[in-house]
Amino acid sequence: MKESIANSYIFMIIITFIIIIMLVFLSSLAYSKAFKVKNKIIDLIEKYDDGYEPNKQTLDAQIEEVLKDIGYRMSNNHTCPTRTSKNGSALTAINTQTNYRYCIYKEVQGRGVQYYVIAYMYFDIPVINEYLEFPLSGQTKVFYETVDNHHKCNTDSDCGNLKCVDNKCI
User: Fold this and answer.
1) Pair 129, 113: CB distance under 8 Å
2) CA distances from 16 to 11, 20, 22 (A)
3) Parallel, antiparallel, or unpaired: how do β-strands 143-144 and 112-125 relate?
4) HEC profile for 132-150?
5) Model confidence, pTM
6) How far is Cα 28 from Cα 5, in angstroms, rounded to an integer?
7) Where are the domains of the chain?
8) Pairing between strand 90-91 and 83-84?
9) Which of 11, 108, 142, 166 could be bridged to 112 by S-S, CB 3.0 to 4.6 A?
10) What is the rounded distance in angstroms from the CA atom of residue 95 to the CA atom of residue 113?
11) Could you tell me how far CA 119 lies from the centroid of its own chain?
């Protein structure tokens, strides 16, 4: 009888380790997919020199195609939460009509714009028919505005080394 109790404890320890290893494996798969999605979106935004908003329709179509190829989870009813920027102001998402769960935020920084991308890792829990999601965020490079003779300005500091005359950098 003593040996059968000892064997059941060993069996429970083995099952526990197998479950832990499976959880680590599944979480690494979810993390790598979310990381890939975030990086693909950032790469697509950085492909254009003027950022996301001037190329919104083209980028949205390209992002949808890439996420479909990756096999990212579709989500028709999602809202992106409000983020707080480095200076304390509230940022709202600028991508509103998508079939996938990701968020893009725009933050103005000096003479440029930077975009923040959030993708989500998912863990399905089949017993209760729910899923957990964890955000994974990244940021693009800063897209600087070009200064030329057609650039509108208010003060000389808006023009860098040039002078502001009649709301134009000269």
Assistant:
1) no
2) 9, 6, 10
3) antiparallel
4) EEEEEEEECCCEECCCCCC
5) 0.73
6) 35
7) 2-139, 143-170
8) antiparallel
9) 142
10) 16
11) 4
Tokens of 94: 């600028």
11 to each of 1, 8, 20, 124, how far by Cα in Å? 16, 5, 14, 27
Q: In the chain, which ranges are continuous DSSP H helix?
A: 2-46, 56-70
Task: Residue 66: count other Cβ atoms within 10 Å of its Cβ.
Answer: 17
Residue 66 tokens, joined: 């890439």
| Look-up of token digits 């998402």 | 93
Do 146 and 160 meet the contact criterion of CB atoms below 8 Å apart? no
d(CA 121, CA 140): 20
Tokens for 169, please give them: 């950098």
Tokens linked to 92? 């709202």
pLDDT in single tens digits along all 170 residues of the chain: 566 667 888 889 999 999 999 989 988 988 999 999 999 999 998 887 777 877 788 888 888 899 888 888 887 777 788 888 777 778 888 887 778 888 899 888 777 888 899 998 888 777 776 778 888 999 888 888 765 544 566 676 666 666 777 766 66
